[in-house]
Every structure is written in structure tokens, then in C-alpha cells.
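Issue 218. Parser rejects a valid record. Input:
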Amino acid sequence: MCGILGVVTFRGAHPSEQSFDCALGLLDHRGPDDRGALHDSLPSGGRISLGQTRLSILDLSPAGHQPMVSERTGTAIVFNGEAYNFREVRAGLQAAGVSFHSECDTEVLLAAYDQRQDDFIESFRGMFAIGLWDRARNRLLLVRDRLGIKPLYYYWDGRTLAFASELTAIAALPGLQLDVCQDAMRQYLWRGFIPFPLSIYKQIRKLPAGYRLSINLADPRPEAAPYWDALDYYSSPKSYAGPIEAVDAIEEVLSEAVRLRLISDVPLGAFLSGGIDSSLVVALMRKVHSGTVRTFSIGFDEDRWNEAPAAKRIAEHLGTQHEEMYISRENLLEQVPCVSRHYDEPFADSSAIPTLALAKLTRRHVTVALSGDGGDELFWGYDQYSAKSNAIFPWVQWIPGAVRKSIGAGLRAFRGSSLERWGHLIAFDDFAQFYARTDHWHPWTFAGLHRATVSMHRQLEIGREVAARLGDQDRDRHMSAADLKSYLVDDILTKVDRATMAVALEARVPILDHKVVELAAGIPYSIKKHGNEKKHLLKALLARHVPRPLWDRPKMGFGVPLVHYFRGPLRDWARDELFSHDHSLSEWLNMNVVQQVYDEHVSGRRDCASLLWACLQLAGWDRRMRGIRQEATLTC
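Output the parser choked on:
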């Protein structure tokens, strides 16, 4: 795993090597083992700089140093991630006469590009963000993996193109115009994260999952296009004789995905919560790996948040070398104020707090960890799929719109209660509006909180795309596909990437191998569902390896009791953070409404913990980013 940075200047001043190195240094946490940079002139005029910070996983020798340049063509690559099947691809290239000087996947990616150009990526299974400078064709190519496991931002203003693993590295480059995107801010306040392709800055975008972006450096106009889309597989369900055949297929493909992710030249383990997904990943590690399997979990003093005992029972049954760490309330409180420094955009999923703690524990022992992310989205794992899609949409959609909206308005009058939320959910016109209304916290505050009207348009776009591709049938399939394209990428995977990379830990996600996704997306929901039992197929597979009594329990989640902390030990800290004058919240938020939200929560009248956390993370992000931008002006 690594951090990558690149900048191409067509007109105007190019960053000095010192400035570029300072910006690249902001990615050292992603790759502390090595750092490299390449600076050159473009054949058509202008300058290019490429850089990488390396976390050595495969071939720890200097042969894996980046940027790496092809001896045959002069093409240069910077690469963040892993191409798990690189040995298989390398064997095919060797048969065609290509020779190699290292045992790393980067060299194989570069050789594959030399042979196949843009189509090279279709040969690889993995997670990746790639920048390629093709000197011979005078073009730049950016590629992001199919599921968006690895981040890739890019900046374009007509004169300069920059790209990076984290937004902070771009923001640290001198001379770039960056303006806060009000639409992104509205999306953040609505959902707690900023959905693709938006970023917190107008001039910076996220390259969507499964996309590549190319730019002719002689006539610079970035062109982005998809090379893979999960909706193609959701829209083409396969035929299965029954659940057993589907489970057999899942076990075969997922076992192979796990096996591929055990390739490493450094110590490797797995996160183990005791839940379905992580337990299944560990069980399949034991199945395909004859050596010791190491597992890691964290526990909490409060029983309702504590999954450590369940994880320990699973570990004992599977015979893993298990490490657990209990986090006291005091230790957790100490970590809360530090979370925002690890996220390059405002990010308000509070499960980032325990995720950071788990990453720190794991990194003491290993450099690579497998995780179970993706099971909920692919295998019908969220309560909201049935509670919202099945219980609401099928019958509410037949109520005339005017009547439905009138009922919704009446329910919304019960502020702070569950009736208010239901009032928002039923006031929809189609699936797109229904999906857009399923992810928000406290709508009663939104109208006045942001200085502009809060918008749902990004969720509407995703909902409309899914509905157009999949038709009007099977709302569960719609919800799963929409979450896979948005919530999974921009919340779950963002959380895990930044938390693990903060401590130079590589997280691998076998359930999100694109072969597993293609299989899962094509399983009919008539087979995927079994009454109201969530993840029926994954449970059936896990039962083949671990007795059901060890894992069959209610889903606990991975949360932190911020509701109580903001009324107790974090009350004063939250007040000072929100109402101090060393941030720019007042430029975007109505601080009178923020005060109202704070007062309503600490008094116990309403639960506004999620919204308070969003405001606090925004303040922390702003403070850090202003420091980075100020430093950039000093290194010009």
C-alpha cells in the first residue's frame, strides 16, 4: 500500500521540487518505507512530477521503488494498492517474451500496459489507484479499482492537472485555486460523507470506482469513462437450482479471493469482530492456508458495545493466534478529538473511532489485515433493506402523492420522534426519491443549519441511475446496488482506508473481489432472501465451518456512545470546539442553529449526537486544512 501524487502543468508555474516533496510528505503515513519522485518536461511543453510513498508488502527490495519506468517504452507508473493475481499475469507476459527484474506487482502492471494500453487493467484482480505517464503517446492515464477500495482524487483547472491518494496532498501544492463546494457541504450534512464524484472542493473530484481517466498532454481535456460497472451484473440475474447451489458457488469464488489476498512478504492477519462477515473471512483463511492465522479484535467496557467475547470464541474454534485489546472509556475519550486529523475531507461516521483503535492494535503485530467489509451490501445484510424497502415502498407507492405528502407532513410535526423520520420517508414520488430519503439524521435542523438549502440531488442521481438500469422490480436489489455504488465506497471503504493507512496498515477486502461481486449481484433475491433473515447465504456458508451457536446473535455494529458522551464527559469539549473562533464554521453554517442543536442534545430533549459529530468533524477538518494551505503558500 502506498500514497501517490502527480501534477502536470500545461501553462503557468510548476511546483518546485521542494514544494512537491512537501506535498508528497503528507502521504508518508500511507507509505513510510520509501519515497520517490520523478520530474520531467513534456514533449509538448510544460512539466510533470510524479511521486510515491511506499509501504513495502511484496518484494521488499529496492527493485520495487517508484515511480517505476519501463525500460522498453519509457512509460512511468505510480501505483497504490495490490494486484493479487500478478504472478498469473506475469507468467503470461513471460511466455510472450517479456522479462522482469523484480517480484513486485508494479512491474507487472507496467509491462501489461506496455502490451495492452488502456485495456491492461482488465487482466487484474485487486484494489488500486494508478497513474501512468505514457511518454511515447504523450498522455496521462488514471485508473481506479472496480469497487473504489483505493481512493483517487484529481484537480483540473484548464492549466494544471493534479492527482493524489488523499485530497490533502493536492491542497498542499502551491498556486492552486480551491473553493469549498457548497453542494458537497450540503451532501455532507445530509449523509455524513461526501459522495462521488464530489469532493469538499469545487476544483477537486473523486474518480469514480471502475473508471479510468485519460488526458492527451498536447491537447489537455480530461476524459473519464467506466471500464466496469456492478449494475451490469445486478441487471442480469443468473439461474440457480436453489440456495445450496448458490452457497457452493459463493464458497468457491470467495475462497479463491481469500487465497489471493494471503500473498505477502510481510506479516499478515485479519480483523475479527465475531460477526458473520469477518468470521467467514477468517474461516476461509483457515481453509485455504496451512500456516498460522492471526486475528485481532477490540473490546469495550460497556457490554452492549462489546463484541470481543464473541470474537474470542470464534478464534478459539478456528484455532487462530488471537489478540484482543480492551479500550477503556477514558482511552476512547482521549481518541475522540484526534479523529478528524486522519480524514482528508469532512467525515462523520463515528465508527471511525473504534476502527482507528483496531488498526493501531493490529499494526503492532502485522502489516496486512483482511477485513469482512461488503457482506451487508451484497448479501442483504442491513435492516433498512427490509424495513424500508419491503415494509414501506410496496404499499405506500400506491397512495396518491398528495395524500402521501399530507400524511408525511403530519408525521413530521412529531419532531425528534421516529414518526418524524417516517414522515420524511413516505413523501416520495419514485424509487430515486425514496432512496434519497433513507439516509439522513435530523431533518428538522437542516432547513436552517446550512446557509443554503440542503440538497438530495446526488442521492437522486444514484437512485435514478439504478432504477433506469434495473427497472421497477425488486426494490431490495435496487437498495443493494445503490448502496454498493455510493454508501459502501464513500463511507465504509473511506473509513477503513483512512483509519488503516493512518498507521501504515494495509486492509484487504476479499468479499469485494470483483469476481465475488459479479457472482453476488447476479444471485436472484428469491434465493438471497430467506424470510426476514439477513445474509442467509453467508450464514449457510459460515455454518459449514463454524457451529451456528458461536455466531448466531443480533448484529451489534461498531459504534461509540456519543449520545451519552456529549451529555457528559465530552460536553465541554464539544462546546469549545463548536463555538471557538479558530475555524470557519460560521461561513457555512448558521451558528444560532448549531447552538440550538447543541442545547437540544445536552439537555436530553433530542438525540442530535450524529449532527453534532458532523459539525465537530467539519470544524476539525477546517482547522487542519487551513494549516496545510498556509504552509503551501510558504513553500511557493
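Fixed in the parser; the record now loads. Residues 232-380+495-550 form a domain with the Rossmann fold fold (CATH 3.40.50.620).
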